[in-house]
Specification:
Layout (H helix, E strand, L loop, with lengths): L3 E3 L12 E3 L6 E8 L5 E10 L3 E6 L2 E3 L5 E7 L9 E5 L2 E5 L7 E6 L6 E3 L1 E5 L2 E4 L5 E4 L3 E6 L2 E3 L5 E7 L7 E9 L18 E3 L24 E6 L1 E4 L2 E5 L10 E9 L2 E4 H4 L6 E3 L3 E2 L11 E3 L5 E6 L11 E4 L2 E2 L1 E5 L3 E5 L24 E6 L2 E10 L9 H6 L2 H41 L1 H25 L6 H9 L19 H15 L2 H12 L6 H14 L4 H20 L13 H13 L1 H24 L28 E8 L10 E6 L4 H12 L14 E7 L3 E5 L8 E2 L2 E3 L3 H4 L6 E6 L30 E3 L18 H8 L3 H25 L8 H16 L5 H11 L1 H10 L11 H18 L12 H5 L4 H17 L5 H14 L6 H14 L1 H10 L1 H5 L2 H13 L6
Parallel strand pairs: 6-14, 16-25, 27-34, 35-41, 40-42
Antiparallel strand pairs: 1-2, 3-4, 5-7, 7-10, 8-9, 8-12, 9-10, 11-14, 12-13, 15-17, 17-22, 18-20, 18-23, 19-20, 21-22, 23-24, 26-28, 28-32, 29-30, 29-33, 31-32, 33-34, 35-36, 37-38, 37-41, 39-40
InterPro entries: Ig-like_fold, Ig_E-set, IPT_dom, Plexin, Plexin_cytoplasmic_RasGAP_dom, Plexin_RBD, Rho_GTPase_activation_prot
Keywords: Membrane, Transmembrane, Transmembrane helix
Protein name: IPT/TIG domain-containing protein
């Protein structure tokens, strides 16, 4: 045996000797001999061996510089000496032993190193060293995470998160860590348990001061930490990708701060720092309803070739259709569309096998049918069993054949065949509708990113416009012009702007007669007789009825209480008339005087609501449409635009264009010419279009009526000191091919980006432009045929290249095929425009249909009046009352205002803006109807665009009507008080004498019939109404009467 060196100070007398072994020269084994002074010695009962540890292998052989890699080192005789004296280093960096040392292996965790490359693994046995010679451990560059998507998950977790980066394959233990901290909870610390089981909640409120290094958490004291942690182990897919499943969290996350990190051994990467979508968030778990909601235990009958539609809530908040797995038994149901409330999938064409039974029980009866299951992350929904419908015609029951005669059997068989055909057709129509809806929803999904960018640009523009409006304000019309445009739409000039068309010598007499007529109109009997008599005349056209109603509105404007009383009386007569026929048709059109009176009454009463509440949203929608349409090319001849909602106004050709920024100088009008204003136009804009856009930008704070007209200005291109060129739509340089002449554009003149132009007054004495104040009807684009010998003008597309079917053939097969075959790119343009404007449309509909602020008194009063009329005539059908309310407010007032913003604002909508507003108006009208809109292949594209939104708008309308009905009734006294105030405020705004003179023209035209009607009524005779009318006729027109 080898001698040893003893340590007396560590030894105990008679019980312990501590010594240090010396070199043995080789492996030996034997008893320990202790020799004491005096020659006595003793032998140990145990045998002591000298071993030579040998390090054979390390696994893995590489890991990141940050450390944290768990190494398994194998060899022989590794447990030599005391375990506490054994240490391991890798290139001089300690590797902390994390398990009990075995003879053949040991496990340790690497520390962080300052350098990369191969490093030697060394065992330290006191002063003795043993090295791994055959191979080395390599420190690699640290893994780096560059991106993590997606950024949302349901509370149940399980959504696959893709973590991208570099050197990710060196990570040994990747984990996704979610820390939930209540917002108002105090910060307390407790030591965190490392690497607990998957999905385990651990109390912790770790704060990372140095991102990248995992720091231990210390929850001091005995209190429980307020934060919770949830971890989920990830899977390394490649050197550039790690796949993680989002951890499931508790419902407390809704009121807490959520911090998500990725733990890559010793490195930590916060999600918010690497995600393009910001911080990670959790959404409430989705809900899915059974296939058979009414009878969940019954199998769902599926017709092969169609889709299965699922209904639920919050389905697409934190998942995409590609991530949802839907199974029918063992077969896959391919998900086609996923929306907030619907999931559409296409099952296998043949009924799949049912799959293994759940719970190990034996299948019986209907259990042989496949189960319909939906897997969304960690959520699994079992929604019922599916039975494929073979649609085989059922044979006629044998009992019935025996019980009835041959003739009855034939009749019954015919009925059965009709039912089967109807059923098959109905199912086919439903499948067609669902397919169209799925195609639309897929298209909407595909253009969603484009819509986001377009919407962001539009909102930036709208914010700039809002800041401009702070100074200038929204260009509302004053009450007089508002009333004239509502009362007399389509008139180039308001009849109230004219003076009395009488000789000066007779003016006083005529005015006196008109005052007498005003007094006569105060007779309710005369006024009702007058209106009914006119309406009974065949030559009294609908246009005359509307005109007379507006003249009466102006004449009675100073007595709105009386006007309202007349309206109620005439309305009562109208209700009695329609109740006897079809009450649902009442107020549908403007075919009677009372219907136009109602339109005018609503307009008078809601003017203040327009200015104070709804006007801002409508103006923002109008400006958003105008800005969006003007961003793309618009054909000046056909009026068709690239960006629109109206497929009839869609420019279907792909026209190349680019945006130019011109520096605009303006002469006159108080504008400083020395400071050019940068303005954006398109290089393919006609010169008139350029002038309109420049005027919009130069005079953006000025209302339309106070701007110079485009016809009064020339566009002058200035290049250098002497280079001034007047640009125009047509000149000697215009390109002419055959009988086609192309309108000039900036591209034609080769005007470069950044060019300087000036708007200068036109010197021609023959400037002609229309007064647009009262052009409220349909506007027409530039005429196709010029005056020059049949030469036809064109701008972007020649009219003959876009054939339009005539109206009488729009329902033909060819037209329907054309509607079905609309190229997807054009539909994408419509959807992109729709998505960009969606917020502004929603804002307008919300403010119109909101009861959060007080509902206008007139609306409540009139709706109560309709409810009373329905009750009085025994009408209990809620659909009829709903139609009455819709026809009296949305159809009669709001559609008119939305489609014609020039009625309330000092603006002039262009044809292409008007086309977009028409679609939005029709959408609002469809939302107010009770009928279900079943869409199919032949449905107009405009209706398909808002097919998903109309049900939501319908709910808003129904809630609006219900909320109004539940509010406190408006009394006649309150209404009369409000009407009297309106009469006082606007008494001098309208020229009632001119209105009375125009009204007298109808009295003169039907003078004999009116006199006859008054003479036949005994009450009118007693009141001498005919005599008074004769006096008025004598004064106004020197009419010879029987006086």
């Amino acid at each position: 045996m080898s001698p040893v060196l003893s340590y007396p100070h560590l030894s105990r007398v008679s019980s312990r000797i501590v010594c240090k072994t010396s070199n043995s020269g080789g492996q030996r084994i034997g008893q320990v001999t202790v020799k004491v002074n005096g020659g006595e010695f003793g032998l140990s009962s145990q045998r002591f061996s000298y071993q030579d540890p040998f390090v054979m292998e390390v696994s893995p052989q590489r890991g990141p510089m940050a450390g944290g890699t768990t190494l398994t080192i194998s060899g022989r005789n590794l447990l030599t000496g005391r375990p506490s004296d054994i240490a391991i280093t890798v290139g001089g960096v300690p590797c902390v032993i994390s398990s009990e040392v075995q003879q053949g292996s040991v496990v340790c965790v690497t520390g962080s190193s300052n350098s990369t490359g191969d490093h030697r693994v060394t065992f330290h046995y006191g002063n003795s060293l043993r090295h791994l010679y055959d191979s080395a451990y390599r420190y690699t560059p640290n893994p780096n995470v560059t991106q993590a998507v997606p950024a949302k998950s349901f509370l149940s977790g399980g959504r696959l998160v893709y973590v991208s980066g570099h050197n990710l394959d060196v990570v040994q233990d990747p984990r996704m860590l979610v820390t939930i901290t209540p917002y108002q909870a105090p910060t307390r610390r407790r030591k965190r348990r490392r690497r607990t089981g998957d999905m385990e909640g651990v109390t912790d409120d770790q704060v990372l001061l140095n991102p990248g290094v995992v720091q231990e958490v210390d929850c001091s004291g005995t209190s429980t930490c307020s934060a919770k942690q949830y971890t989920e182990r990830c899977e390394v897919n490649s050197s550039s990708l790690i796949l993680c499943r989002g951890p499931a969290v508790g419902p407390s996350v809704r009121g807490s701060q959520v911090d998500v990190s990725f733990l890559l051994d010793n490195l930590r990467f916060p999600f918010s720092a690497i995600s393009p979508h910001g911080a990670f968030s959790y959404e409430l778990n989705p809900k899915l309803y059974p296939l058979n909601r009414l009878e969940p235990l019954k199998p769902y009958r599926y017709n092969p070739g169609s889709f299965i539609q699922l209904e639920g809530e919050d389905l697409d908040l934190a998942i995409t259709k590609e991530e949802v797995v839907v199974l029918v038994g063992e077969g896959l149901c391919a998900v086609k569309t996923l929306t907030r409330n619907h999931l559409y999938c296409e099952p296998p064409s043949q009924q799949p096998l049912p799959g293994p039974p759940s719970g190990g029980r034996k299948r019986e009866g209907t259990d042989t049918l496949p189960e319909f299951t939906v897997h969304i992350g960690n959520l699994n929904f079992s929604l019922g069993r599916v039975q494929y419908d073979t649609l085989s015609p059922s044979t006629f029951p044998l009992e019935a054949q025996v019980g009835v005669g041959v003739g009855a059997s034939i009749v019954a068989l015919i009925v059965l065949i009709i039912v089967l055909i109807y059923r098959r057709k109905s199912k086919q129509a439903l499948r067609d509708y669902k397919k169209v809806q799925i195609q639309l929803e897929n298209l909407e999904t595909s253009v969603r990113d484009r819509c986001k960018k377009e919407f962001t640009d539009l909102m930036t523009e709208m914010m700039d416009m809002s800041s401009d409006l702070v100074g200038s304000g929204i260009p509302f019309l004053d009450y007089r012009r508002y009333a004239e445009r509502i009362f007399f739409p389509g008139h180039r000039e308001s009849p109230l702007r004219r003076d009395l068309d009488v000789q000066e010598c007779r003016r006083a007499t005529v005015e006196q007669g008109l005052v007498q007529l005003s007094n006569l109109l105060n007779s309710k009997l005369f006024l009702t007789k007058f209106i009914h008599t006119l309406e009974s005349q065949r030559t009294f056209s609908p246009r005359d009825r509307a005109y007379v109603a507006s003249l009466l509105t102006v004449a009675l404007h100073g007595k709105l209480e009386y006007f309202t009383d007349i309206l109620k009386t005439l309305l009562n007569d109208l209700v009695e008339q329609y109740v006897a026929k079809n009450p649902k048709l009442m107020l549908r059109r403007t075919e009677t005087v009372v219907e136009k009176l109602l339109t005018n009454w609503m307009s008078i009463c809601l003017y203040a609501f327009l200015r104070d509440s709804a006007g801002e949203s409508l103006y923002m929608l109008f400006r958003a449409i105008k800005h969006q349409v003007d961003k793309g090319p618009v054909d000046a001849v056909t009026g068709k635009a690239k960006y629109t909602l109206n497929d009839n106004r869609l420019l279907r050709e792909d026209v190349e264009y680019k945006t130019l920024t011109l520096n605009v100088l303006m002469q006159g009008g108080g504008v400083n010419e020395t400071q050019p204003l940068p303005s954006k136009v398109l290089d393919i804009d006609t010169i008139t279009q350029v002038k309109e856009k420049l005027l919009d930008q130069v005079y953006k704070g000025t209302s339309f009526s106070h701007r110079p007209h485009t016809d009064s200005l020339d566009l002058e291109w200035r290049a250098g000191v002497a280079g001034h060129l007047i640009l125009s739509d047509e000149d000697l340089t215009s390109v002419v091919q055959g009988n086609w002449k192309r309108l000039n554009t900036l591209q034609h003149y080769k005007v470069p980006d950044g060019a300087t132009v000036a708007l200068v007054p036109r010197h021609s004495k023959h400037i002609h432009h229309d007064n647009h104040d009262y052009l409220a009807g349909e506007k027409t684009p530039m005429l196709e045929d010029a005056d020059e010998g049949g030469v036809r003008l064109w701008h972007l597309v020649k009219a003959s290249e876009e054939p339009e079917l005539p109206k009488h053939r729009r329902g033909s097969v060819r037209e329907r095929e054309r509607a079905k075959a609309i190229p997807e790119i054009y539909l994408t343009r419509l959807l992109s425009m729709k998505g960009t404007l969606q917020k502004f449309v929603d804002d307008l509909f919300t403010v119109i249909l909101s009861t959060s602020r007080p509902v206008p008194l007139a609306v409540k009063y009139f709706f109560d009046l309709l409810d009373d009329q329905a009750q009085h005539h025994g009408i209990t059908d809620p659909e009829t009352i709903h139609i009455w309310k819709t026809n009296s407010l949305p159809l009669r007032f709001w559609i008119n205002i939305v489609k014609n913003p020039q009625f309330i604002f000092d603006v002039q909508p262009s044809d292409h803006v008007d086309a977009v507003l028409t679609v939005i108006s029709q959408t609002f009208m469809d939302s107010c109807t009770t009928a279900e809109h079943k869409l199919g292949r032949d449905s107009p594209i405009n209706k398909l665009l808002y097919a998903r939104d109309i049900p939501r708008y319908k709910q808003m309308v129904e809630r609006y009507y219900a909320d109004i009905r539940q509010t406190i009734s408006a009394s006649d006294q309150e209404m009369n008080s409000a009407l009297a105030e309106l009469s006082r405020n606007y008494s001098g705004e309208l020229n009632y004498l001119v209105a009375l003179h125009e009204l007298y023209k109808y009295i003169n035209k039907y003078y004999d019939q009116i006199i006859g009607a008054l003479e036949e009524d005994t009450t009118a005779q007693k009141m001498q109404l005919g005599y008074r009318l004769q006096q008025i006729a004598a004064a106004v027109e020197n009419k010879v009467t029987d006086l």
